[in-house]
Write a structure and sequence with these properties.
With 289 residues, the protein is mostly helical. The protein has one domain. It contains 15 helices and no strands.
Length: 289
């Protein structure tokens, strides 16, 4: 556990941590602070705010711990769904991964408490939900998807909790993150049906079938996009309203591709497409002011 990792083992740890996703979380929280918070602070004040850095760091640590426990519980399922990408139990021993998960959670919660009691409490709730999701919720229809979407939104809402400013703007982007993540998680369940079904998971596509799940996604995509446009129009910023109006185009394209999708690799491509939509939404923060 405490021995120095070899270079190859360190690479596996970074893969297990989903480093690109952690970078996106880090980048998103700083963008929210830079462009959505309204305290009259200069950008340098935010960059030099050590407590905010600790908040962002604690969020990414909790997220990394969540990836560890998810892969820890999903070894058998992943051996079917993505056999070439299984790390835990294959390239890294299971026990150290479980210990890292516990240590990372403890660090994330303690650092959060140091920033503020509210940040520490949110980190505690997030750590528990990530464990509960991996242990139970992801095997149930829709509940697991909603949990991951909520936690994604929470990573933005915690910025408003810290600064006590920009609440409505941050809420809009949290809603955006919630919607895109919920859609993406359901699509990922369609991609992973084979392994999930083999081990008794009751995800939405397993319970309802692909066709009915697609109809739920069509409604979610349209409803989410229209609601997002409505909320964005309340900001009173023409550029932002126009940006989210333009978002209708990739949303309609997503529906078109979803209609055509009927194979595992199609659902994988749609999942990646949703991730790029998320990044595109984050970048729109730069024009809000």
């Amino acid at each position: 556990m405490f021995k120095i990792l070899s270079f190859s083992s360190l690479l596996q740890v970074l893969k297990l941590s989903r480093t690109p996703n952690l970078i996106i979380i880090f980048f998103t929280q700083y963008c929210a602070a830079f462009f959505l918070v309204e305290l009259g602070q200069s950008k340098w004040d935010i960059i030099l705010d050590f407590n905010f850095f600790l908040l962002v760091l604690s969020t990414t640590i909790i997220a990394a711990a969540g990836y560890y426990i998810n892969d820890y519980y999903d070894i058998k399922i992943d051996m079917i769904n993505k056999p070439g990408k299984v790390i835990v139990g294959n390239k890294l021993n299971r026990r150290p991964v479980l210990i890292w998960h516990q240590i990372f959670n403890a660090i994330g919660i303690v650092v959060g408490v140091y920033v503020s009691i509210w940040v520490g409490l949110i980190n505690l709730v997030a750590a528990f939900l990530l464990w509960f999701y991996s242990n139970q919720l992801k095997r149930l229809p829709l509940l697991g998807n909603i949990t991951v979407a909520f936690l994604t939104a929470l990573s933005l809402l915690i910025v408003a909790v810290y600064f006590r400013s920009g609440e409505f703007k941050i809420f809009i982007y949290a809603f955006f993150a919630f919607g895109i993540t919920l859609i993406r998680e359901i699509i990922k369940d369609m991609e992973d049906m084979k392994g999930d079904e083999a081990f008794g998971c009751k995800s939405l596509p397993i319970v309802l079938g692909i066709r009915k799940t697609k109809w739920i996604l069509y409604i979610l995509i349209l409803g989410f996009t229209i609601s997002l446009f409505y909320f964005a129009s309340k900001i009173g910023n023409i550029a932002v309203t126009g940006y989210f109006l333009i978002l209708l185009i990739p949303s309609l394209f997503l529906i078109y591709k979803l209609v055509k999708a009927d194979a595992k690799h199609h659902f994988y491509q749609l999942s990646q497409y949703c991730k790029w939509l998320m990044i595109g939404g984050v970048l729109s923060m730069t024009i809000i002011n």
